[in-house]
Design goal:
heterodimer, A: mainly alpha, two-stranded parallel ribbon, B: mainly alpha, 8 helices, 79% helix
Amino acid sequence: MDVLERQWMNMKWQKSATHLNEDYRLSMFSIPSIQDQQFQGLVESDQGIVELVAQAKKPDPVMENGRNNFCRAENSLNYASCVYWNGSEFEMNYAIPTTASCPPEVAVANKVKEVALPEKLGSAARRESFKKRKSYKARELKVVAEEQNREKKAKGRVEEEDSKITKQNSNSKRTTTTSNNNKETSADNSKGNSKLSEIPKPDYIHVRARRGQATDSHSLAERVRREKISERMKYLQGLVPGCNKITGKAGMLDEIINYVQSLQRQIEFLSMKLAAINPSLAFDIENFMVEEMFLASTSSIPTAGVSFDVINPSHIQFNSLQQGVSCYGLETDVNPPDIMLRRTISSPVLMPEILLESSYLNASISTFSSSGFTEAGNVELEK
Amino acid sequence: MKARTGYSTSLKQEFLKKWIKGIRIYSNFKKDMNILERKKAIKLSADLAIASTRNASTRWSRTLTANISKNETNKLFVEQIFSDSEVIKKEAPSRLMARSNRIASKKIWRRSHITQIKARKMGPYAVKASSIAKKLVKNRTKVLKSLVPGGENMDGISLIKETLDYIVSLRVQVDVMRRLASAAENSTRLGLSSKCSVHWLQGIFTVLDHWCAMVH
């Protein structure tokens, strides 16, 4: 039964492997439920996952060596799923291929399987089969199947990463360390026997030490943590516009901080603008805007050295506001203190001071490409 | 593409509904607000609405709601809004304390242990460089923690996760607000809002009607 279904899965996977990529995307995007869409929405915006999927297509030549590729796309059972493949030296010969194009029976079968999956994975991790392998980059993501809950997309996507295992690519001897310090260091070169021990294991993160690196559990755990962080940073890179060229945590964090700050300020400004909708109340605006600028600034902006020109309420121009909003979104690197010192306010003033830094946008435009920003907005437009 | 916009759209619609509901309730509380109060009402309802779309599953949404509820006047408002939906409860403070203690002690251990190992492995200059880099990262993480609501006691990994979610929600908020504002501008230009009454809320609702008409 085991062998049979494994072989069936194998065949099925190979059949679908060729069109895995587009199936993946199609299947990802044809499901109406909210949880799935949350996931999909995020997934699609993330180039990383698409690349990973593309890489998953490669391991055909190594299938004979017993590599297992677990592929699962989201099914209609509202599972937050992800591509799941194993490019390592595990011997398990069954794959769980599903795309949404699979018939529901397969989906049901997969549901059954995924319960058994964690335990099998755990036991497989302890089986060693070391043989020569081409070195290619492959990652292993674990399917996290959440049952009918409101698992949100970021969380769902990130939980994949929680159990990500990094595989090494060299052929040297390796040590397996489980996070419960269950060390097995025998190099077993068995090829054909893929006997699964049926001992159910808890969901540990199995890590292998790379060649030439320390193998004590602390540094391994550290490495796992670091890789988790870097993986999530990659997602953030997809989310924050203009982060593609920046490498390194510090720069990325900088961009993220700027982005979050600019979004928050935009919200402040927009809510002010909306509060001013009624034109008959426009004349109040003059007084209140002055106060507002002093009170509502989100950061500790020194208010010395500020000079206001006369604010003319009859020139409330929502047009310029609109432009200003989109311009403001582009501003990144201007420091608030500089803003304050260099501020001059011209007559069509309804906006907070920050908006008028459109003159400084030239420097910042390269970082936040305007097309990227508005494009992100446009893509989300309702048809 | 279709599903991506589908998800965003549904999220935006949910946000919009809750937001408008919040504004309505708020304006029933207080009539005749000046512009500052209106702005506060708008922002408050928006924050509550976007936090509630997460159904208290993320840390930032819980903290945001809790912070809003701290203010007594807002508390009634919050309770009214959420009378028909889930209850937001804050994490027990004791758990937070324990957690931050654990994190702190872990960090201390890690710092001491790692510097030892590194000093043995690498030369002294390399250690210095990496520690500078770490300091940079640390400072920025601190700033990020201050930005994201509820980020204080989180470690790096969950902080990034929360930031992801928070960024998405902020974007939804900005997008909806911006479109509403542009619809307002259009209707002002076309003179359509002239028939709205003095009550400022009417203005928004007129605009909303026009917007919905435009969209559908």
